[in-house]
């Protein structure tokens, strides 16, 4: 059978525009002599629409396009995903139409990034389909059946921890779109594929708006891989076009550190140098190395860099607090002045954005957000956090990839660590808000620990694995020894600091900007509980480890 697989870019919430794209691709598929065309799940509407699914008029409007597609099935069979709305009842469905005859399957509501049961009802409707001598089966996601040809529709965001595949014969048609839902910006990468008996035979390019023809009797065996950097750039470009109109300047604080360097490269690659305005907002504690890094990066990317110092504003703030309100700065903890500096930077970046009619990009990485190593209304501002779902380790890898792509040093190499039997930094990570300041994180180790805890790792099981020495044989072993955490007392001290800091800063996790989501557990999809939880079993294990 010749099947046309659609990878059309879906405009969330714009059913009319999506229908016109589908109509054009149906005509194209007929011209290609395809016998069937398959569109992704929720191709007409998008999926992550929140309260729109509770709007009767919108649901009726989305449903109305089903009849138009049924009418278009005279010359080709059409499979698509859309809602069915009847008398206040909303179902998320897959449809098959051939010469105005239809079959349907209802999707069981799931709770992944969105609780579908809030909007969609369940039903056992699952019609059998016989077409061109083949028994076809409509499915969602990666659920398949043996002894039939599966047509799997999906609307699955990119996730570095998971690649979707089928375990039986059929085609997989994922959506191509960017959707914002709550604090998360999701990228569905498209890339439809054909499988025989669970083996990937051919796939279309990811992040590509178009139509791919496969012949199940004579497949072409072309396969394509998905690169996370491409996902990020597609997400940035599409978010910018859909949400901001595609013309606004992007304002970035460029410190010369790793996070802002990677972000500057990302937004320059996505929007071009003319739309990027970079500012080095130096404190009295900034090193010449990071200032040089900022200038080197700006020159390599061809972006504007405006250099200035915030010292006058910092001292003015101190004077107001002391002279107008009577405070004694000699009694303040150092954190007071550190946060004042960070908030002044946020104030200036917001002012620059207002002057240029632009938006500020947030430079925070996932570990910093998790541990609250950021200042509300300071470096926690922004319209979007492109690297908010990236650990520092992810940024190390991304930096190398960006430099390889440019074929020159864009991200300064002095920001990347050298790891042997120890870890060495030419320019170690620092907020540079006080003298000789270094980040408190144990990079690589804390990155991995955060990922595992957010993915549901039981802290007690982790402690038992340390106690039994099993932890040293796996991915943690090298870093535990490198950071001196093979000393039980140091391990317990660090573990207690990390977990308590993570819990204590939940309020910051709730207030950070929207995140370009790349993992299975980005902030915004995880229910955040504020307050201290007591685990007697953990306390017992920590005591045993300390006393061993």
Automatic annotation (TrEMBL):
Any one biological process term the GO annotation gives: NAD+ biosynthetic process
Keyword rRNA-binding: no
Keywords: ATP-binding, Ligase, NAD, Nucleotide-binding
Alphabetized Pfam families for the sequence: NAD_synthase
Enzyme Commission number, as recorded: 6.3.5.1
GO CC annotation terms, alphabetical: cytoplasm
SUPFAM superfamilies: Adenine nucleotide alpha hydrolases-like, Carbon-nitrogen hydrolase
Keyword ATP-binding assigned: yes
InterPro entries the record matches: C-N_Hydrolase_sf (IPR036526), Gln-dep_NAD_synthase (IPR014445), NAD/GMP_synthase (IPR022310), NAD_synthase (IPR003694), Rossmann-like_a/b/a_fold (IPR014729)
A Gene Ontology molecular function term of the record: glutaminase activity
Catalyzed reactions per annotation: deamido-NAD(+) + L-glutamine + ATP + H2O = L-glutamate + AMP + diphosphate + NAD(+) + H(+)
Catalytic EC class: ligase
Domain NAD/GMP synthase positions: 251-455
Pathway(s) of this molecule: Cofactor biosynthesis; NAD(+) biosynthesis; NAD(+) from deamido-NAD(+) (L-Gln route): step 1/1
Homology family: In the C-terminal section; belongs to the NAD synthetase family.
NCBIfam families recorded: nadE
The protein, known as: Glutamine-dependent NAD(+) synthetase
Source species of the chain: Dielma fastidiosa
Gene name in the database record: nadE
